[in-house]
């Protein structure tokens, strides 16, 4: 019996030893498949078929997809093409407003007898937060600011206090164009004193000049790495002749010369071009054929934005699509008239204007600059009378209605404002709903 037990124990020991040896032998073989091995990344065969998921049911898996890159020993992505390159785009804001005028009734309420000077800042207080959003912020100065020495006067031959320039800068404008029909109201001396004051404040100017060198100089204003070329022209100077020895004093509309100026800016490497155009017919709420023909031709020649003034009422705006030689399409913007920004004119929407806010995008990789969203912001000149003296404030009218910030108005005033806002919106929409397609570019 004892012998049987010993034989059974020996058999058990032999079985155990035999199993260990087999395990050792198996460990020396190539590992073809193990349950705990990580999934193997399959090469991309270019087929859309997925053999493991033959139906349309979506499955979530932690396993790498066939297109996933393999990590290195530290878990870093070893596929250089894993992250697609993203074009770098720079965004900036272009803004502009219409005519800054100075009729004689605007003076008394702005005069500070204690300081013996004028303060026009209150004109702009409510629109300043809007204008401060601009990277380029333009305005048309439709009066000389030659100061007291040449005498203050309103229509028909204007001259305003120099403090108006301080207020323009306070408002947020950094670019002033003054090629308009009132540029010569105080002659060459008026131009000289006006430019002297504006430039002393650090404002960029365009449209008048004291020398031929100044007149021919390229005006390029760079913001956020985007270079804007600037030009400005007027249809005339109310019959006042340009100085014989200074025919360049005011930039006049001349189609061939303007196209040449556009080409010069293009050659200098600007990203986009703005042209301030003083043109059209006063108090007409729609552009005439000459306006449309000229503005569209300038866009075809390479201009990107036309900032129009002179009619003293808001006119429509339109976008223009231009086919380029490389097959691409360029988008231009024509603002035919921005109306009065500040003046004493009233009625028939002459006391309304508009601030345009335009997004500018530059693709740094391709070097292409384009026009994005266009937003017209209607404004109204609120005029109130205190102690027989008028006071003026430019109001962003839709915001003011929403915030209920308007004071001293009757029900009839509110009805008139709402009616005029509707009229302005109809003008904006009348030419902007669909882009105007140019047949060819002049570039």
TrEMBL record:
Compositional bias of kind Low complexity: 50-73
SUPFAM superfamilies reported for this sequence: Metallo-dependent phosphatases
InterPro entries (alphabetical): Capsule_synth_CapA, CW_Biosynth-Accessory, Metallo-depent_PP-like
Residue span of region Disordered: 28-87
Pfam families for the chain: PGA_cap (PF09587)
UniProt xrefs under PROSITE patterns: PROKAR_LIPOPROTEIN (PS51257)
Domain of life: Bacteria
Family named by the database record: Belongs to the CapA family.
Name this polypeptide is given: Uncharacterized protein
Organism from which the protein derives: Paenibacillus baekrokdamisoli
């Amino acid at each position: 019996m004892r012998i049987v037990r010993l034989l059974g124990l020996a058999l058990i020991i032999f079985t155990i030893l035999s199993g260990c040896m087999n395990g050792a032998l198996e460990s020396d073989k190539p590992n073809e498949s193990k349950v705990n091995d990580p999934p193997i990344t399959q090469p991309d065969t270019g087929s859309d078929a997925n053999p493991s998921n033959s139906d349309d049911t979506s499955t979530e898996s932690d396993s790498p997809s066939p297109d996933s890159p393999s990590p290195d020993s530290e878990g870093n992505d070893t596929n250089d093409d894993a992250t697609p390159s993203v074009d770098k785009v720079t965004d900036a804001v272009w803004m502009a407003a219409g005519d800054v005028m100075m009729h004689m009734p605007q003076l008394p309420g702005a005069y500070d007898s204690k300081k013996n000077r004028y303060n026009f800042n209150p004109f702009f207080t409510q629109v300043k937060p809007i204008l401060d959003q601009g990277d380029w912020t333009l305005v048309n100065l439709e009066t000389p600011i030659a100061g007291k020495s040449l005498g203050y006067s309103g229509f028909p031959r204007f001259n305003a206090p120099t403090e108006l320039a301080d207020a323009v800068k306070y408002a947020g404008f950094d670019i002033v164009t003054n090629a308009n029909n009132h540029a010569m109201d105080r002659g060459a001396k008026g131009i000289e004193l006006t430019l002297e004051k504006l430039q002393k404040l650090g404002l960029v100017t365009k449209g008048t000049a004291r020398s031929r060198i100044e007149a021919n100089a390229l005006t390029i204003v760079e913001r956020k790495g985007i270079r804007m070329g600037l030009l400005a022209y007027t249809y005339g100077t109310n019959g006042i002749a340009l100085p014989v020895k200074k025919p360049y004093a005011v930039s006049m509309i001349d189609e061939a010369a303007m196209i040449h100026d556009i080409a010069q800016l293009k050659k200098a490497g600007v990203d986009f071009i703005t042209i301030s155009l003083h043109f059209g017919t006063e108090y007409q709420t729609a552009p005439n054929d000459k306006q449309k023909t000229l503005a569209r031709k300038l866009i075809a020649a390479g201009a990107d934005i036309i900032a129009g003034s002179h009619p003293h009422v808001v006119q429509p705006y339109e976008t223009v699509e231009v086919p380029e030689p490389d097959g691409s399409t360029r988008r231009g913007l024509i603002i035919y008239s921005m109306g009065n920004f500040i003046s004493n004119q009233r009625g028939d929407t002459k006391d309304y204007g508009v601030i345009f806010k335009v997004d500018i995008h530059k693709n740094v990789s391709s070097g292409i600059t384009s026009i994005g969203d266009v937003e017209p912001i209607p404004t109204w000149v609120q005029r109130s009378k205190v102690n027989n003296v008028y006071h003026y404030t430019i109001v962003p009218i839709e915001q003011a209605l929403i915030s209920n910030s308007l004071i001293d108005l009757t029900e009839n005033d509110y009805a008139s404002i709402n009616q005029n806002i509707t009229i302005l919106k109809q003008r904006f929409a009348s030419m902007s709903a669909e882009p105007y397609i140019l047949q060819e570019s002049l570039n």
